[in-house]
Amino acid sequence: MLGRGSKLAAVKISAIIVTAIVVVVAVAGVALYILTAPAPTPTPTPTRPKITEIRIGMIEPLTGKYAVFGKEAVDAARLIIEIINEELGGVKSLGGAKLVLVGVEDAGESPEVTAMAAERLIATHRPHIIVGAYISRLTAAAAEVTERERVIFAFDALVDWLTERGWRYVIRLAPKASAHGATAARFALSLAKERGVEAKKVVVLHEDSVFGTYVATGAIRELAANRIPYESVSYPYTIEDFGPIISRLREIKPDIIISVPYFHDGVLFAKAYRASGLKVKLIAGAGGCGYIDPGSIEAVGEAVEYFTNTLSYDPSRATEWNKKVVEKYVSRYGKPPSEAAGIIFYTLFFIYEGLEKASEMFPDDPLNPDNLMKVFMSLDLTDENSISAQLYPTGRIKLAPNGDNIYAGTAVLQVIGGKARVVWPKPEPGVVPVCPMP
Amino acid sequence: MGGPTLKASRFGWLAPPLALAALCGLVPHMVGFNQYYILVATRIAIVASVALSWNIIGGLAGQLDLASSAYLGLGGILAAELMIKYGVTPWIGMLAGAAASAGVAFLIGYPLFRFGIREVWYALSTVALVVVLHELAIVLMGPFDYYVPPVEGWYYLRFRTWENLYYVSLVLLAFVIVVNLWVSRSKLGYYLKAIREDETAAEALGVDVRKYKLLALLIYATLVGFAGYLYVVTQRTYSYKTFSAPFSIYIAVIGIVGGLGSVDGILLAAAMLGMAEEYLRATFGGTLPGLHLLVYGLLLVTVGVLRPEGLATVTRRLLRPVRTRFLGGESA
Amino acid sequence: MLPSPSLIVQSLVDGVFLGFLFSLVALGLSLVFGVMGFINFAHGDFLMASAYLVWVLASSLRTEPLATAALTVPLFFVVGAAVYFLVARPLLGREPLMQIAVTVGVGYVLQNVALMSFRAEPRASLSYALNTYFGLGPVSVHAAKLVAALMSFAIVVGLDYLLKRTWFGLAVRATAYDRETAMLMGVDVNKVYVAVFGLGIALTALASSLWMTFGQVDPYLGASFGLVSWIVIALGGLGGVPGILASSLIIGVVQSLTTNIVSPSVKMAAASVVFLLVLWFRPRGLFGKV
After folding, report:
1. In this complex, is the C-beta atom of B329 within 8 Å of any C-beta atom belonging to chain C?
2. Can you tell me the distance from the alpha carbon of C152 to that of C210, in angstroms, rounded to the nearest whole number?
3. Is A52 helix (H, G, I), strand (E, B) or coil?
4. Distance separating alpha carbons of residues A299 and A304, to the nearest angstrom
5. B318: closest CA of chain C, how far (Å)
6. Any chain B CB within 8 A of the CB of C266?
7. Model confidence pLDDT, tens digit, residues B29-75
8. Residue B248 sits in a domain of what CATH number?
């Protein structure tokens, strides 16, 4: 046994030595790393050999609150990739190279998990293009990784600033959040006018996340442009009790409510609204989450009858390819495609159409991310020359330098008889939008 | 005294830490510079540092502190904000973060210990601290995520790839280990252990219970506050959610499963739980959300009910042959 | 902007209703803590588990959530007894840190089993029977909340009577006061412990069926109820039912006022601040016996 004093001294010395060792090893490690690490890979140009596959990765929320959306997106992707590979014979201009879904990572519920998923996806599979991640704040986290690794990231998320951050390898076809808000306001006002319903006061009721705020801003801009008096009411999307909000609404007495739910708050609001006995002429949702999706309709039943919401996809658009894709989707998954699936439809076809053109523009290195981005920027797609445009609500796709579609637009759906029906920009055959709500 | 044993152990004891340090230092090479694995390793090193800092208040002083994310978040967010808004290098920001954490710890700890709040009430107060900071942050920062901007270099302590940050985290971990060893063998450590065993008795013996508990809390908060920036950088984002009750519990789980007061046990627990978490998330995340948390819960119950010494006994048993060989006995 | 008086009155009423429900949950926890000296950090999670059961029963049997109490309350008494034998008994008399850690572990197990079984999306019962508002002067009263408050109050007062006037109550109080003496007096302490623990958990089941008439459940519902219950005990001291009732109402009103006037995001912070202040300035609680 050691005496206490000498033991203490020994410990002190040993502590210092341990530190020294670790520091030395750490420094040695850094040095060794600098000496042996592969130089940061310059533009990868190993594409001379024949391209046989184009690797697509996906990061979608598969667990937690947003899993519903992520699962739908992955289902849709599997279907579209199958159509491209089997029906269209892969990318013909690249010798029939197939699209391969190399990895589907779970984005989880928090940005750090999503970033981790992106690291893993890229380190394991080195995909050429990644699609994801539906929830904007998760998407932003993953984009930091894809940008560093120079992998093209096709967003299926809507918040405006995703394309305002100066990222170079991103594209987004779907209409951004503020466009959703603007469309909802435009739709509600024009429908009210058409039916001779007074719209003296409009409430923009939104959850206060970045997403809800952007959608609401779009709606408010549209209302202000039309000189309609409005009031904006916000709440956290984790809200548990709409009692106070209902009291506010009772005081304001709006004619129209433009509501931006995140999802489950929509269910709660619909229930609270029905229970309260409040009467407004129209509840126009905006942002594509809640009210009109099968989940919400199932959860609250009649409470969402005649509610509307904007959608980044128009399932009833009468073009050849849209009909075909919807039919295949319904027959395989037994439910109509909604927001998440629709965005994937046109995004993947857009990628496919870009790849077809890539070898023409850059025969030497078609899959180089810089080249591929140039190809995507050069596409100008319409119903006549493109499948993805046929699947897009406005029928036209051309990207702005920041990666957003210049001709973005949404559809509006209304719950009529417990089913979501397209009522805008062109109502489905046999469907008449209901306003004022009875 | 000592005799042959001491001679045998003069350099022999160096072997395990040396081997461990070498092993840790070579991780990036072993995984072939796969960024994903290096990031996992970096996170484990940071979490282990936090858990070992917690060990001082939780393991040695026996106060169940559930506020590690409060100190981590304070330090990390302060350093990140200083860098983003004023261009202050995180090296200074981390010191400022450590000071801020220590300040908050003092504000909360002084009255608590002064009024003799302990046991369940101490644990609840730390939970309350996290809740208050969490909700205060929603008000002050809004429900948004903030991103550390894509700056790179030693000035910003943020790099394109993860190797450098991994080594920085290792150095931090080594420092925290040294602090642990120093505290546990010092007078402070003996007093803290006395407080843990029986606070009333320690007080009766004339130990200034308030002072030493506060000191333990301050050391812990300072270390965790310092680590905050590294944590934020590996997470890439910070927000009100950085003040997270589950994370604080996770840290306590590592400390308890590893064995209160045991450095090697906690290291082992941090590494095992960290790898298990990432493995479970990546493998079953899609089908069984929360599986890793369920496993933590079961571990806690099992360790608590059946084997209160934690993993420390396991490492001790595993290391016994090594020790006997190098140290020539059990004496060290 | 100053809140309108009617909003304040509305918040007070809502807060009082909520407070009565809190008292029901906190009473169970305070019995377990006061009588056995056992620290349960999973108390709220039992409420969450039971709320899921209520949701499953109410939506599959198409009954009122309240009616399910007939099934869930006895069931959770048994669950409580089982948890007592498996987890609580081995830990009685052990250091508080371990009791807290282990019950946090139990809570994690419950939360994540719920997460795996039901996913994270909140679930609400589809009952409409009590889901109406009626006006009462400037305030609108949610019928379900009124019923929940009245029933909670009745049960809490009833239990108070039980603890004061019956032999069981005497045994419980004797055990809480001095375990050894109670044993000498012929009280089977072990039985008292089982009964108290079972009762505590059964009360969460009852509270959950009241909660589900107007609220919703997700895997993290228990966290807020658990914390609130502990705060109520801190405020009320262990001074018995009146203290618990009064502190529950205070916390309910504080939460309701902050929700409606400041923001729903800070209601737990408000309760926590009250808790810290009371700990610092009245360590024995507002109503506790010194």
Report:
1. no
2. 8
3. coil
4. 10
5. 25
6. yes
7. 888 888 899 999 999 999 999 999 999 999 999 999 999 999 999 99
8. 1.10.3470
Asked if B36 and A37 come within 8 Å (Cβ–Cβ), the reply is no
Q: Using the Cα atoms of residue C31, residue C35, residue C36 and residue C39 in order, give the sign of their dihedral.
A: positive
Query: Nearest C-alpha of chain B: how many angstroms from C209?
Result: 26
Query: Does a cis peptide bond (omega within 30 degrees of 0) precede residue C264?
Result: no
Q: CA A437 to CA C159: how far, in whole Å?
A: 49
- Measured CA to CA, the distance from residue A10 to residue A16 in angstroms comes to 10
**Neighbouring residues of C138: CB distance < 8 A, sequence distance ≥ 6:** C5, C6, C9, C10
Structure-block tokens of residue B217: 């809390």
- Pairwise CA distance, residues B252 & C108, whole Å: 13
Helix (H, G, I), strand (E, B), or coil: what is residue A152? Answer: strand
The answer to whether residue B146 is domain-embedded is yes
- Angle formed by the axes of helices C143-165 and C167-177, to 10°? 80
Tokens of C144: 């379900």
Does C216 contact A at CB distance below 8 Å?
Answer: yes
CA distance C20 to C97: 30
Handedness of CA C248, C252, C258, C263 (dihedral sign): positive
Q: What element of type H or E holds A258? A: strand A256-260
**Per the domain annotation, does B291 fall within a domain?**
yes
Give 10-residue mean pLDDT values along chain A (438 residues).
52 63 68 60 55 93 80 94 94 92 87 90 93 91 91 95 91 94 94 90 91 93 93 84 82 92 85 85 91 81 89 92 95 90 96 93 91 95 94 94 92 91 89 89
Write down the pLDDT at residue C125: 75
Please, what are the domains in chain A?
53-175+317-407 (3.40.50.2300), 178-311+412-424 (3.40.50.2300)
Distance from CA of C133 to the nearest CA of A (A): 6
Neighbours of chain A (3+ CB pairs under 8 A): B, C
Say if B141 is an interface residue toward chain C (CB within 8 Å).
Answer: no
Residue partners of A4: CB distance under 8 A and separation at least 6 = none
Cβ of A64 within 8 Å of Cβ of C126? The answer is no
Distance from CA of A99 to the nearest CA of B (A): 23
On the CB side of C181, how many CA atoms lie within 13 Å of its CA? 9
Domain count, chain B: 1
Q: How far is A253 from chain C (nearest CA, A)?
A: 16
Q: Burial of B15 by CB count in 10 Å (0-12 exposed, 13-18 middle, 19+ buried)? A: middle
In A, residues 114-153, which contact B (CB 8 Å cutoff)?
115-117, 119-120, 122-124, 137, 140-141, 144, 147-148
Could you give the CA distance from residue B117 to residue B121 in angstroms, rounded to a whole number?
Answer: 6
Residues of C in contact with B138 (CB under 8 A): 263, 265-266
Q: Which residues of A touch B22 (CB under 8 A)?
A: 25
Tell me how far the alpha carbon of residue C78 is from its chain's centroid.
18
Q: Over chain C, what HEC string results?
A: CCCCHHHHHHHHHHHHHHHHHHHHHHHHHHHHHHHHCCCCCCHHHHHHHHHHHHHHHHHHHCCCHHHHHHHHHHHHHHHHHHHHHHHHHHHCCCCHHHHHHHHHHHHHHHHHHHHHHHCCCCEECCCCCCCCEEEECCEEEEHHHHHHHHHHHHHHHHHHHHHHHCHHHHHHHHHHHCHHHHHHCCCCHHHHHHHHHHHHHHHHHHHHHHHCCCCEECCCHHHHHHHHHHHHHHHHCCCCHHHHHHHHHHHHHHHHHHHHHHCHHHHHHHHHHHHHHHHHHCCCCCCCCC
A3: exposed, middle or buried (C-beta count within 10 Å: 0-12, 13-18, 19+)?
Answer: exposed
Window 92-131 of C, Cβ < 8 Å to B = 94-98, 100-102, 104-109, 111-113, 115-116, 119-120
Domain-located, residue B68: yes
